Amino acid sequence: MDPARIAHDPRDGNLCIFFIPYNLGGHWILTIIDEDKDNVYVMDPLGARHSQDAWKTVLNNGIKAFNAQIRGRPRKLSTWIMFSGAPKQSDGKSCGYFVMRYMKDICKDSSLKFRNKYRARRKDTYTQMELDEVREELATHVLEWLFD
């Protein structure tokens, strides 16, 4: 597992979340697996406009296989929760940057209280400066990788 896609709360050794950015075919969403709560959270920059049934099936099957292999027994299916309070994009092209910003904000929050923060419906979006920040970080990372 790529350590960049896992977040741990140092105060709780059992808390482990997995970030899974996923492209539904022209649109990015963020899926977060929370092992502690047996929940799968979805953050969609457009709201709940896209059907995620196929993705749910794939991910549920993966979770079942993981639980059977690691834990030796199946567990109940995870509960899927749409975070309606996630910031929304106002255009048709910035979803990938929103997904990167979601991950950055969750990782920066040392309390990992994202469950409460994004559950309630809000009307905010990211500022251009906040999106430019992740654009610059991505560009820097890619350039370092290319020329390292």
UniProtKB/TrEMBL annotation:
Q: Which UniProt keywords apply?
A: Hydrolase, Protease
The record's annotation in SUPFAM superfamilies points to: Cysteine proteinases (SSF54001)
What's a single GO BP term from this record?
A: proteolysis
InterPro entries with a match to the protein in the record: Papain-like_cys_pep_sf, Peptidase_C48_C
Q: Which domain of life is it from?
A: Eukaryota
GO molecular function terms noted in the UniProt entry: cysteine-type peptidase activity
Q: Where does the Ubiquitin-like protease family profile domain lie?
A: 1-106
Query: Where would one find coiled-coil regions in this protein?
Result: none
Q: State the Gene3D superfamilies in the record.
A: Adenoviral Proteinase, Chain A
Q: Which family does it belong to?
A: Belongs to the peptidase C48 family.
The protein's name is Ubiquitin-like protease family profile domain-containing protein
Supply the source organism for this entry: Prunus dulcis (Almond)
